[in-house]
Input
Amino acid sequence: MENTKLTPIRFPLDLLSDLDKHVGERQKSKFIIEATKKELLKLKQKKALKFAAGVIKDKEYPEFASAEDVASWVRRLRDETEARRREIFGE
Output
């Protein structure tokens, strides 16, 4: 069995009542654990994005300056890949 620890958490009564109504008494812990995991993942992703913000400089990567530039860059990469594939496989 997974390592667990019982911890008291205060819930607003209306939220607890709604939780019981929609999730049920026997599934409450599982639901809260899964919801907590999802929210923690979102929080970690937001922190990582904030940390990485500004890593790519416009001057260093002009192909990322706008959505159109990115689309053009991706299209060019795909075309180059297709050309190499045809060259290798003779199609």
The chain has a mean pLDDT of 91. The chain is about 65% helix and 0% strand. Helices lie at 13-22, 28-52, 67-89. Residues 56-91 form one domain.
